[in-house]
Protein backbone atom coordinates (compact mmCIF):
# COMPACT_ATOMS: atom_id res chain seq x y z
CA UNK A 1 0.00 0.00 0.00
CA UNK A 2 1.32 3.42 -0.85
CA UNK A 3 0.50 6.46 1.20
CA UNK A 4 1.30 10.10 0.61
CA UNK A 5 2.65 12.26 3.36
CA UNK A 6 2.97 15.99 2.87
CA UNK A 7 5.24 18.30 4.78
CA UNK A 8 5.49 22.02 4.28
CA UNK A 9 7.99 21.82 1.43
CA UNK A 10 7.83 18.30 0.01
CA UNK A 11 5.63 15.29 -0.64
CA UNK A 12 6.91 11.83 0.36
CA UNK A 13 5.51 8.55 -0.90
CA UNK A 14 5.68 5.78 1.69
CA UNK A 15 5.20 2.13 0.71
CA UNK A 16 4.13 -0.14 3.58
CA UNK A 17 3.91 -3.90 3.20
CA UNK A 18 1.31 -4.79 5.81
CA UNK A 19 1.74 -8.54 5.29
CA UNK A 20 5.43 -8.35 6.26
CA UNK A 21 4.69 -5.94 9.11
CA UNK A 22 2.06 -8.28 10.55
CA UNK A 23 4.37 -11.29 10.26
CA UNK A 24 7.17 -9.43 12.06
CA UNK A 25 4.76 -8.26 14.78
CA UNK A 26 3.52 -11.77 15.64
CA UNK A 27 6.96 -13.43 15.73
CA UNK A 28 7.37 -12.86 19.47
CA UNK A 29 3.73 -13.31 20.48
CA UNK A 30 1.32 -16.17 21.09
CA UNK A 31 -2.37 -15.88 20.20
CA UNK A 32 -4.53 -16.41 23.28
CA UNK A 33 -7.91 -16.16 21.57
CA UNK A 34 -10.55 -13.43 21.51
CA UNK A 35 -8.10 -11.10 19.74
CA UNK A 36 -5.53 -11.09 22.55
CA UNK A 37 -1.82 -11.89 22.37
CA UNK A 38 0.88 -12.47 24.98
CA UNK A 39 4.63 -12.11 24.53
CA UNK A 40 6.75 -15.26 24.42
CA UNK A 41 10.29 -15.58 25.75
CA UNK A 42 12.02 -16.25 22.42
CA UNK A 43 15.43 -17.10 23.91
CA UNK A 44 17.37 -19.51 21.65
CA UNK A 45 17.50 -23.06 23.00
CA UNK A 46 20.24 -25.69 22.64
CA UNK A 47 18.18 -27.56 20.03
CA UNK A 48 18.17 -24.51 17.73
CA UNK A 49 14.55 -23.51 18.34
CA UNK A 50 13.32 -20.53 20.37
CA UNK A 51 11.72 -20.79 23.82
CA UNK A 52 7.94 -20.55 23.49
CA UNK A 53 7.16 -20.01 27.18
CA UNK A 54 5.09 -16.97 28.01
CA UNK A 55 7.09 -13.96 29.11
CA UNK A 56 5.87 -12.74 32.50
CA UNK A 57 7.53 -9.27 32.53
CA UNK A 58 10.79 -10.62 33.94
CA UNK A 59 11.43 -13.64 31.76
CA UNK A 60 9.60 -16.90 31.27
CA UNK A 61 10.60 -18.46 34.58
CA UNK A 62 13.41 -20.46 33.00
CA UNK A 63 15.20 -17.57 31.26
CA UNK A 64 15.32 -14.37 33.34
CA UNK A 65 15.07 -11.16 31.30
CA UNK A 66 18.62 -10.13 32.24
CA UNK A 67 20.08 -13.09 30.33
CA UNK A 68 21.23 -11.79 26.97
CA UNK A 69 19.30 -12.95 23.93
CA UNK A 70 21.30 -13.86 20.84
What's the total helix number?
1
Distance between the termini: 33 Å
Determine the structural class based on helices, strands and strand pairing: alpha+beta
Low-confidence stretches: none
Fraction of residues in H or I helices: 10-25%
Profile the largest sheet: 2 strands, antiparallel
Globally, the shape reads elongated
The residue-averaged pLDDT reads: 79
* Major sheet: arrangement of strands: 1-2
Q: In percent, how much strand structure appears in the residues?
A: 25-35%
Order of helices and strands: EEHEE
Rg result: 18 Å
Annotation, overall tally of beta strands: 4
Fold topology:
Layout: E1 2-6, E2 11-15, H1 18-26, E3 29-33, E4 36-39
Describe this entry's structure for a reader:
- By secondary structure, the chain is α+β, with helices and mostly antiparallel strands.
- The strands form two sheets. It has a two-stranded antiparallel ribbon with strand order 1-2. The protein has a two-stranded antiparallel sheet with strand order 3-4.
- Strand 1 and strand 2 form a beta hairpin.
- It is elongated, with a radius of gyration of 18 Å.
- Helices cover about 15% and strands about 25% of the residues.
- The model has no long low-confidence stretch (mean pLDDT about 80).
Structure summarized in a few sentences:
The protein is of the alpha+beta class and 70 residues long.
Amino acid sequence: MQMQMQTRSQVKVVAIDFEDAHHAWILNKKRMGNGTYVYICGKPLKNGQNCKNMDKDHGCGIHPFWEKRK
